[in-house]
Design brief:
The chain has about 625 residues and is of the alpha/beta class. Helices cover about 40% and strands about 15% of the residues. The protein contains 22 helices and 25 strands. It is globular, with a radius of gyration of 25 Å.
Length: about 625
């Protein structure tokens, strides 16, 4: 046997041996099917054999440095392939630009084959092993992966495992009445059992897609559709579903993906009489995914999409002995950041940061100002109520503020999934438009534009300073504003989320070197912050992070310490100048600090003055 093949076989067997007993125990607990478990292990080995030598080499390096994704040079950017560069080949041709943005991880928004007009932005997958034809092919994806790896850039993709499109091969065969495929979904020939589910299962989109079941006339059955009628929920009580979806997962990992985002994690397991959210079996499935990954492709990171408060999503990290996801989204903080902008009050944000900072440092959150989705105002309303803010009127205030209907508001955007009966709604808009760059440009107001750019930069400085991994949204680096042309597209005009999914304005990148333009102010400022984050040891992933008491409810303070390195960061969420007096402990009376961006000497023992929407990164200087 050639030496390389023997080494690879031994490597697989050693990894499988490390996890076999626990993997089998969890599998048998869920399915009690030894034959299917044997098939799973055999197929895992097949995918391992098919994995390229270059990916296996990368796996080995990452096994030696398992915290590779937590280092302070990790900076992500999410983008839509078609909007950014047309297709996968175009993305490959623009990697140089992404490198100029200091990006080290590219999150490609859903690109797998999905039906035109009924794709939910690509989250209704018709084929897990095929790229949408207009975006390219799996061969193009592999070429992009190889080029990214050559330049030290990682690739992230979405793995939608809760459901398939109604156009998936399984769904087509189920629709035709084939029992084997109907058993891969939740089919019922009358509404008795669905009615039982509806008693306890919340609705995801009560206005645009009410209910959790859809009647399929051709099949004469109801099918569970938690999200949209054309997205059929998979039945993970069927071991064939689990096995086949794991094979899809490994296939995609072998195309060169480094980070795989598990979409809608809490929904995976369904149980009548429950909310069908966050059930115990979900954790068993994610734990098995983690082990399968560590056996076949240990260089791949699992990113979980769990939309809850940080302390409630923490169980999806698993434990030190039995880890689940490597990273989780920090969705609630995104909403709370914008709440702080609207209210000029950072108390709720500070409280959330305190909760995150009390969690083990190994827990890694992905942080962002904006993403491809809407902003749902899932805030800590019990706490807000203590401060005199009731949930319903407060949500109305936030939506009026960010749509520009409130006096003094500079934001522009549109509501999503508005419920006219309750007044509840979510919000859509780009970072730049929410910060006022759109309205200032429309009004041709230089002072207003100066303040809008300052707010935009301050918010990015905050994201870069907090614990976790920062993720940018493509276009934010050049101040891309809302795109209202989606209303002219029959397939998009009913979905206001497309307002912040506009085509990337490449023409604006020509202004990056012109300091008299928005791009010439924004891009270099963000680049300077990103460079400092990458170079300064105090931004290390395992640094101790805490909130600093500023004595001012409009100014948030963050402390970071890594060894002897110390950073005090202050962020003014008010448009007016604020004065801050730090405590003697935080100011370290008698110690010398300097502005990390300008090098200016600072004495934090004296009152600190921050102009409206400005920030300060102050680093301790050692004599």
């Amino acid at each position: 046997m050639p030496e390389r093949k023997k080494k690879n076989r031994d490597c697989f067997q050693e990894r499988l041996g490390r996890h076999h007993d626990e993997l089998r125990w969890l599998y048998m607990e869920l399915y009690n099917n030894g034959d299917m478990f044997g098939e799973l292990c055999d197929t895992m080995q097949s995918f391992y054999k098919e994995r390229s030598d270059s990916l296996k080499e990368l796996d080995g390096k990452r096994e030696e440095s398992p915290d590779w994704f937590r280092k302070n040079d990790m900076l992500g950017m999410m983008l839509y392939i078609d909007n950014f560069a047309g297709d996968l080949k175009g993305v490959r041709e623009h990697i140089g630009y992404l490198q100029s943005c200091n990006v080290s991880c590219i999150h490609l928004m859903p690109f797998l084959d999905s039906p035109k007009g009924r794709s939910d932005g690509g989250y209704a997958v018709a084929d897990f092993r095929k790229v949408r034809p207009e975006l390219g092919s799996m061969a193009d994806l592999q070429k992009l992966s190889r080029e990214c790896h050559r330049r030290g850039i990682s690739l992230c993709m979405d793995f939608v495992m809760n459901h398939t499109s109604e156009e998936h091969e399984w769904a087509k065969r189920a629709r035709n009445g084939e029992g084997e495929y109907m058993s891969r979904y939740f089919f019922f020939d009358n509404y008795d059992i669905p009615a039982q589910y509806e008693k306890t299962v919340p609705q995801v989109f009560p206005t645009t897609a009410p209910g959790n079941f859809t009647w399929i006339p051709e099949a004469g059955h109801h099918v569970m559709t938690t999200f949209y009628p054309y997205q059929w929920d998979l039945n993970y009580k069927n071991p064939r579903v689990f096995n086949e979806m794991m094979y899809n997962f490994l296939f995609l990992a072998n195309q060169g993906m480094d980070v795989i985002r598990i979409d809608a994690v809490p929904y995976i397991w369904k149980e009548i009489g429950t909310s069908c959210r966050n059930l115990r079996q979900v954790h068993s499935i994610v734990r098995m995914m983690r082990m399968i990954s560590e056996v076949v492709c240990p260089g791949v990171i699992l990113l979980g999409e769990v939309v809850m408060e940080p302390e409630k999503v923490a169980p999806y990290f698993g434990t030190v002995e039995k880890p689940e996801c490597h990273m989780l989204y920090n969705v609630t903080t995104m909403a709370t950041i914008w709440n702080s902008v609207a209210t000029r009050d950072v108390r709720l944000l500070k409280k959330q940061m305190d909760i995150v900072n009390r969690l083990p440092r190994e827990y890694t959150f992905l942080n962002y100002l904006r993403c491809h989705d809407d902003i749902g105002w899932g805030l800590d309303y019990p706490t807000l109520k203590e401060w005199g803010m009731e949930e319903v009127p407060h949500k109305k205030f936030l939506n009026q503020f960010f749509t520009g209907r409130t006096g003094g508001s500079i934001s522009r955007g549109e509501l999503y999934n508005e419920d006219l009966a309750t007044g509840d709604a979510r919000f859509c808009g780009t970072t730049a438009s929410m910060c006022g760059i759109e309205s200032a440009g429309f009004e041709q107001d230089p002072e207003k534009m100066k303040g809008a750019i300052a707010l935009d930069i301050m918010l990015h400085a905050y994201i870069l300073a907090q614990s976790g991994i920062p993720m940018l949204y493509s276009g934010d680096e050049i101040g891309q504003v809302n795109d209202y042309t989606y209303k002219e597209d029959m397939e998009k005009r009913e979905d206001s989320r497309y307002i912040h999914r506009g085509k990337f304005p490449w023409k604006l990148t020509e202004n990056i070197g012109d300091p008299d333009t928005v791009q010439g102010k924004l891009f270099p400022a963000l680049s300077a912050l990103e460079r400092l984050r990458r170079e300064e040891p105090v931004f290390a992933g395992d640094a101790r992070v805490w909130t600093v008491e500023t004595g001012n409810c409009s100014v948030l303070g963050i402390g970071r310490r890594m060894g002897d390195e110390l950073l005090i960061a202050l962020f003014n969420f008010h448009e007016m100048t604020q004065e801050i007096e730090l405590s003697a402990e935080e100011a370290l009376t008698g110690e010398r600090f300097q502005n990390l961006l300008t090098g200016e000497a600072l004495d934090l023992a004296k009152p600190v003055v921050l102009c409206g929407h400005r920030f300060l990164w102050a680093k301790k200087v050692y004599r």
